[in-house]
């Protein structure tokens, strides 16, 4: 029998995500960004002091503040719904009825089990049913959901759900191929392995559309 703490460790080490939404508390936004930065600054300082670092050293004295700002405003900035990109959509005036693929969108995220980077590429596709979305909006949606403590499976699903809502169609797909530094740089230290996740909605559940999408991802872009 394993105790509760061990079972939590095991969930983390095996990178199993526990739900489709990020586990946020109800009071997640009671504090302002500045209040969060002040609080996290103290916590980072305490970690470094506990490790025995001399924080009067010129190189490190700004570290607690830098890390706190980076957490709140950058790498976990996508937790705050105020930062959600406006999904401006348009009528599909040119009646393009085929699949649109935005591939090689760079993903910078953070593993919620180890707080180490997840770095990779997302490939997103949809088939318009009358509505289209600006191409860069797809990159922004990927970026927004990436900037959270994440598991890759959840990130993949969130991107698809967001685009399904914005476009009013189930016909959306996403594949992410990413390296997890918690696997590549520590633990098993396998620098070559990467993790692939996919979510296929609507027509992408059918073999033909899925194959077409996966073939487009393999295309090498020459210019
Ligand atoms: Zn991890």
UniProtKB/TrEMBL annotation:
<comment type="pathway">
    <text>Cofactor biosynthesis; 7,8-dihydroneopterin triphosphate biosynthesis; 7,8-dihydroneopterin triphosphate from GTP: step 1/1.</text>
</comment>
<feature type="domain" description="GTP cyclohydrolase I">
    <location>
        <begin position="40"/>
        <end position="217"/>
    </location>
</feature>
<dbReference type="GO" id="GO:0046654">
    <property type="term" value="P:tetrahydrofolate biosynthetic process"/>
</dbReference>
<keyword id="KW-0342">GTP-binding</keyword>
<dbReference type="GO" id="GO:0006730">
    <property type="term" value="P:one-carbon metabolic process"/>
</dbReference>
<dbReference type="InterPro" id="IPR020602">
    <property type="entry name" value="GTP_CycHdrlase_I_dom"/>
</dbReference>
<dbReference type="Pfam" id="PF01227">
    <property type="entry name" value="GTP_cyclohydroI"/>
</dbReference>
<dbReference type="InterPro" id="IPR043134">
    <property type="entry name" value="GTP-CH-I_N"/>
</dbReference>
<feature type="binding site">
    <location>
        <position position="114"/>
    </location>
    <ligand>
        <name>Zn(2+)</name>
    </ligand>
</feature>
<keyword id="KW-0862">Zinc</keyword>
<dbReference type="InterPro" id="IPR043133">
    <property type="entry name" value="GTP-CH-I_C/QueF"/>
</dbReference>
<dbReference type="GO" id="GO:0005525">
    <property type="term" value="F:GTP binding"/>
</dbReference>
<protein>
    <recommendedName>
        <fullName>GTP cyclohydrolase 1</fullName>
        <ecNumber>3.5.4.16</ecNumber>
    </recommendedName>
</protein>
<dbReference type="GO" id="GO:0006729">
    <property type="term" value="P:tetrahydrobiopterin biosynthetic process"/>
</dbReference>
<dbReference type="InterPro" id="IPR001474">
    <property type="entry name" value="GTP_CycHdrlase_I"/>
</dbReference>
<keyword id="KW-0554">One-carbon metabolism</keyword>
<dbReference type="InterPro" id="IPR018234">
    <property type="entry name" value="GTP_CycHdrlase_I_CS"/>
</dbReference>
<keyword id="KW-0547">Nucleotide-binding</keyword>
<feature type="binding site">
    <location>
        <position position="182"/>
    </location>
    <ligand>
        <name>Zn(2+)</name>
    </ligand>
</feature>
<comment type="subunit">
    <text>Homopolymer.</text>
</comment>
<comment type="similarity">
    <text>Belongs to the GTP cyclohydrolase I family.</text>
</comment>
<dbReference type="GO" id="GO:0008270">
    <property type="term" value="F:zinc ion binding"/>
</dbReference>
<dbReference type="GO" id="GO:0005737">
    <property type="term" value="C:cytoplasm"/>
</dbReference>
<dbReference type="GO" id="GO:0003934">
    <property type="term" value="F:GTP cyclohydrolase I activity"/>
</dbReference>
<keyword id="KW-0378">Hydrolase</keyword>
<feature type="binding site">
    <location>
        <position position="111"/>
    </location>
    <ligand>
        <name>Zn(2+)</name>
    </ligand>
</feature>
<keyword id="KW-0479">Metal-binding</keyword>
């Amino acid at each position: 029998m394993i105790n509760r703490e061990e079972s939590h460790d095991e969930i983390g080490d095996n990178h199993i995500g526990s739900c489709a939404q990020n586990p946020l508390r109800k009071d997640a936004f009671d504090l302002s960004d500045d209040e969060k930065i002040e609080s996290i600054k103290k916590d980072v300082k305490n970690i470094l002091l506990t490790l025995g670092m001399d924080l009067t050293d010129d190189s490190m004295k700004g570290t607690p503040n830098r890390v706190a700002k980076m957490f709140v405003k950058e790498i976990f900035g996508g937790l705050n719904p105020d930062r959600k990109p406006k999904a401006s959509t348009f009528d599909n005036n040119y009646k393009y009825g085929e699949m649109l693929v935005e591939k090689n969108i760079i993903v910078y995220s953070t593993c919620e089990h180890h707080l180490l980077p997840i770095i990779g590429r997302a490939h997103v596709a949809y088939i318009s049913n009358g509505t289209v979305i600006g191409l860069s909006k797809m990159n922004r949606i990927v970026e927004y959901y990436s900037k959270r403590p994440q598991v890759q499976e959840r990130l993949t699903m969130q991107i698809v759900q967001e685009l399904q809502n914005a476009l009013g169609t189930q016909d959306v797909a996403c594949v992410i191929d990413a390296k997890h530094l918690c696997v590549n740089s520590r633990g098993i230290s396998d620098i070559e392995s990467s993790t692939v996740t996919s979510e296929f909605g609507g027509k992408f559940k059918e073999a033909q559309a899925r194959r077409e999408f996966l073939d487009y991802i393999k295309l090498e872009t020459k210019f």
